[in-house]
Amino acid sequence: MTANNVFFNKRFNGYDKDEVDSYIKNLTRAYQTAYDEYNIVCNKYNELLDEYKTLGEQHDENVSTAAVIAKTMVEAEAFAQKIIADARIETDKIKIEAQNSVQKIKEEAHNLLVSAVAIKHETPSSQIPVNTGG
Fold first, then answer.
1. Which domain does 81 fall in, by range?
2. For residue 77, how far is the Cα from the chain centroid?
3. Would you say residue 132 lies in a domain?
4. In sequence order, what DSSP letters do the residues of 15-28 get, joined into one string?
5. Residue 2 forms part of a structural domain
C-alpha cells in the first residue's frame, strides 16, 4: 500500500469517512508492522554488535596472550641455549681435568713401577718388606 496514489470518493460534505478511516487503519497497521520489524532488526543488530565487540575483545586478549607466550618461548629458548653452552664448557673442563688426572696417575704409576724395579735390583729379595695384611 502506498500513500502516493490513493483516491477517495467524494461525498456531499467531503470524502467518504469510512474509506478514509479504513485507509488510515490499514496504513497504521502497515506502519506498526514496519516499525515492529525495524525494532526487531535494531535489537538483533545491537545483539550482534555486542557479540562482535566481545569477540573483538577476546581476540585482542588472545593476541596479547599469544605475544606474551611467544616472547616467553623466545626467552626460554635463549636461556636453554645458554644452559647448553655452559654445560658444554663445564663438560669440556671436567673432561680436561679427568684427562689430566689420568695422565698424572699414569705418570705416578710409571714412577712407582720404575722405583719398584730399581729397588728390586738394588735390594736383595730377603730385605724387601712383605705385606702380611696386618
1. 10-126
2. 14
3. no
4. E-HHHHHHHHHHHH
5. no
Phi and psi at residue 31, in whole multiples of 5°?
Answer: -65, -45
Number of domains composing the chain: 1
Task: Give the helix ranges, DSSP H, for 1-134.
Answer: 17-122
In a domain, 67, yes or no: yes
Please state the separation of Cα 20 from the chain's center in Å.
Answer: 70
pTM given for the model: 0.46
Residue with cell 478511516: 21
Binned at pLDDT 50, 70 and 90, residue 30 comes out as: very high
26/33 Cα distance (integer angstroms) = 10
| Residue appearing with cell numbers 730399581 | 118
Q: What is the pLDDT of residues 83-92, one digit of tens each?
A: 999 999 999 9
Domain-embedded: residue 5: no
Q: Rounded to whole angstroms, how far apart are CA atoms 62 and 68?
A: 10
Residues 61 and 55: their CA atoms lie apart, in Å, by 10
* Residue 10: φ, ψ to 5°: -85, 145
SS3 assignment, position 127: helix
CA distance 121 to 124: 7
- Tell me the residue type at 108: E
